[in-house]
Structure formats: C-alpha cells, structure tokens
Amino acid sequence: MNRRIAELLDRDDVRRARAWLESHDAGTLGLQEQLVAIPAPTGAEGERAAFVEDRMRAIALADVHTDVAGNVLGRLGEGPLPGLVLCSHLDTVFPAGTPLDVTRTGARLSAPGIGDNARGLAALLVLAEAIRECGVRLNGPLTFVASVGEEGEGNLRGVRHLLGDASFRPEGFVALDGPGLERVVHRGLGSRRVRVTYRGPGGHSWAAFGVPNPAHAVGLATARIAEIPLPAEPRTTLTVARLGGGTTINTIPQEAWLEVDLRSEVTDALESARAAMTGALREALEVSNRRRASGTAALTMDTVSLGDRPPGSTAPQHPLVRAAVAATQALGATPKLAAGSTDANVPMSLGIPAIALGAGGRGGDAHLTSEWFENVGGPEGIARVLLVVLATG
Q: Where are the domains of the chain?
C-alpha cells in the first residue's frame, strides 16, 4: 500500500470520518434522492443551486455564495485560496418537464440524473459535512464548487467562468461526476460540436423541378462524413448525431440541418478531423449546387458551434493521480486510468493538475430516463475522495 495513504488510514480523524460516512450512508442516499427531484436542466440550474447553497450554509462552510455564472461555492481550511478544488456539476441533460420520480426495485434506485450527477453532488456535500463533524485536519484550504453548464451545450460554462479569473488558480482540481470507485479520469476528452444548416428556395416537390434540395445536401454530407478515415490512436470519433428539416411530404425543404459531434484526446487529431469534416460538408454543398437547374437559386451553408471542449491531461505519475490510484487500491478496488469529458477538462487544458472521480456506488443508463444507481460501496467512494484530498491538498 502507498505509504502516505497507509498513514492517513491510521489517523484518528480519518477513522472517525470513515465511520461517520458509514453511519450516515442512508442519509447520503436520501440527500441524493432529494437532489434528483429538483429540476436542473443545463442553463436552468437555479432551483437546485439554491438548495445546495442552503445546505452549504447549514454545514457551516465559510464564504458560501453563488457567483455571477450561477456556481455555488464554499470553503473549509485556512491558507491562500482557492487551494484544492472539489467540484460537482449541478445540471442534467434532461429538459424541463421531465418526470423526476424515484422508483425502487430492490437495491436499485431509478430516476433521470440519479447518478449523473445527483450522486456527485450528494458526495460533495456529505464529504464537507464529514470533514466538519469529525474535525478532519486539512493541509490547506479546500474549495467546494457546485458548477453550472457542465452537460452538452453548457460547454463547461461554470468552470470556464471560474478559471477565466487569473487569480483563481487551484493547486489541484477534483471533479466528482457520477457513481463509481475504480475509474481515475486523468485525460480530458476534447470535443467540437457543430450544427450545419443548408438553405435554399424550396418549392413544390413536382412543380419546382431542378431546385436544389437542402435535405439531399444533408444526406450527401452524412455519407461523405461516414467515409472519413479516423485514427484508432489517438482514438478520434466523428458522429452525425441528429438530422432535421422539411415541412411536408410534398415540399422541397427550404432548410435542412445536421449536428455533428467530434471527439479526441489530442488537439491535433481534433483539428485534422474537423478539417476533413468541413471539406465533406462543402463538397456536399458544391455537388448539390452543380446539379441544380439553370436559373434556380443556389443552396447556402451555415455552420454554428454548439460547443468546444478542450482536451488535456494530468500525467499518470503526478501526485494527484498517484494518490487517487493508491486510495482506490487501499479501499479494495482496482484502479482504471481513463479518459472522459468532465469539468476537469478545463483545468487540465490550462496545466492545472486535475482528475475526475466517481462518488461510490454503481450505475447505468446515464443520460437516459431509465438511469439507475445501486449503493454498493457508496461510503468507500466518498472516503476515496477524502484520502485524495488529504494526500495532495
């Protein structure tokens, strides 16, 4: 076992905190259910943020406040701020009006967002409470953040805002995202997301013979994109994720669109694939316009960015990663170094040591309304975060 982790496990305050987490496990699960019942679509996290702020105040964190972006912050410990940052995102992928009732089937809880990220938020708050209640000795300041805009088109808005302030430079950053006890995400999966719209004059499907068809351009673009060779190393993906357009079955559309998700861990690979995608999109436009009848208006193409997540990494040998690996092993799990797209992407891209960890338990069907969570090893997941904090903070 890692010597530093072994020393921590033998400390009285850490033992008290682990016992506290075990004895309050049912309360942690209840808090998780409370959180998942509060709607928090990306861009509309205010109600859940207010709940978290009230909870931080009840725990008696210092300097609790909501910033102009909507992030909720509080802190423990003394020393130059922000110290080590623990961050868990408030938002979910589910739109307003999604039923959020929790159903129980044996040990399984099911609800949209029960794992991602009601579990991470519950762990953030419970860990802060355990540190306070058990008098855990911190090495320095610990800043707790419940962030906005992590999911989808939120484009990591909350953490971008925090780190956009040059004076806010953490010593390290740990994102608590969903369930789990094994994964140590130390590589940030970058992405480029775009919506491409083809537009033309449209017309009757028979009478407007020869008018260029935006839907045909979308089909051509999709086919061309599917033919782009992509590297397995570094792994790079290019996905046409959504298509749309048109009005009626007997009308040439005036517009049609596609949305594309491009991902890689390496910036050069991202940019190379994006250039190939742009070429495919333009080729589809040119082919469609070459085929139009003389005298008809040409199609146009408009591209809008839906998100731009930076890739990055924290070296496997960095003390933050090594502490997470050692803590995982000490708690009886097998660590798995991994890549992911989380709030930790932003600090990684800025050279700030950062990782993302699950918060215990296990789950599945993330981002589906059938999402589920089972509280297997829940306290150990939160204890792992505590050990990482004490080993590196």
A: 3-189+311-392, 190-308
Please report, for residues 35, 222, 237, 289, 366, the alpha-carbon distance to residue 202 in angstroms, rounded to integers and kept in the order given: 48, 20, 33, 13, 40
Percent of the chain with pLDDT over 70: 99
Q: Which CATH class is domain 190-308?
A: alpha beta
The correct answer on CATH 3.30.1330.10 for the domain covering 3-189+311-392 is no
192 has pLDDT over 90:
yes
Cα–Cα distances (Å) from 181 to 178, 273, 383, in that order, read: 10, 34, 10
- Tokens 């010593």 correspond to 171
Residue 324 · residue 335 · CB < 8 Å: yes
Nearest to 108 by CA among 41, 29, 38, 48: 29
Confidence of residue 1 (pLDDT cuts 50, 70, 90): low
Distance CA 114, CA 111 (A): 5
pLDDT attached to residue 153: 87
Same fold yes or no, 3-189+311-392 and 190-308: no
Residues counted in the chain: 393
Q: Is the pTM of this model over 0.85?
A: yes
In the chain, what is the straight-line distance between the N-terminal and C-terminal CA atoms, in Å? 20
CA atoms of 114 and 118, how far apart (whole Å): 5
